[in-house]
TrEMBL record:
Pfam families given in the database record: HTH_20 (PF12840)
Entry-linked Gene3D superfamilies: 6.10.140.2180, Winged helix-like DNA-binding domain superfamily/Winged helix DNA-binding domain
Protein's name in the database: Helix-turn-helix domain-containing protein
Secretion signal, residue range per the UniProt entry: none
Source species, domain of life: Bacteria
SUPFAM superfamilies the record matches: Winged helix' DNA-binding domain (SSF46785)
Amino acid sequence: MPKNPADILMNPARQRIIQYFVLHKKGTSGQLAEALPDIPRASLYRHIKMLYDAGYLQVLETHPVRGTEEKTYCLTAQPMGENASEKEVSALIQNLLYAVMTSFAQYFQTHDTADAQKDLLSVSSCTLLLTDDEFAELLRRIGQVYQTYLNNKPSAGRKERCLTFISAPPKPSKGESPC
């Protein structure tokens, strides 16, 4: 079982499980199975267990159901732990960046007919001058756009698309830009 937070969180199925909890706040494995029908039930249970064992999910309540216990899960308040060190947070961010770079490299290496334009691959970067309040508003509005699509169910024509939004640290010193 992966111990590295990036190994746990970078799995597309586990990302979708976490998104479910972000949207619905709580849920049972049965509710997750209904919401994510393309993930086989046995795999779904393994992913839930992995997220629970790693401390990203907690049991909110339990109810007896036909001789067994049904658990209702929710996200933990501090998924990296209250005492996550700067080194751990830095490693998670670096692993995320590495995973994004790897996905692009794999795409171009394994697709003989890779067509970035047809597949709508994109990358962009810009530097904005914002107060903390303006930045919080920008994040809220981006969240609203994401919210519009997070409940989409698998259907013909729908493909998994990974969007990564990164807020880089402020400029280290006058005249130098991290972007």
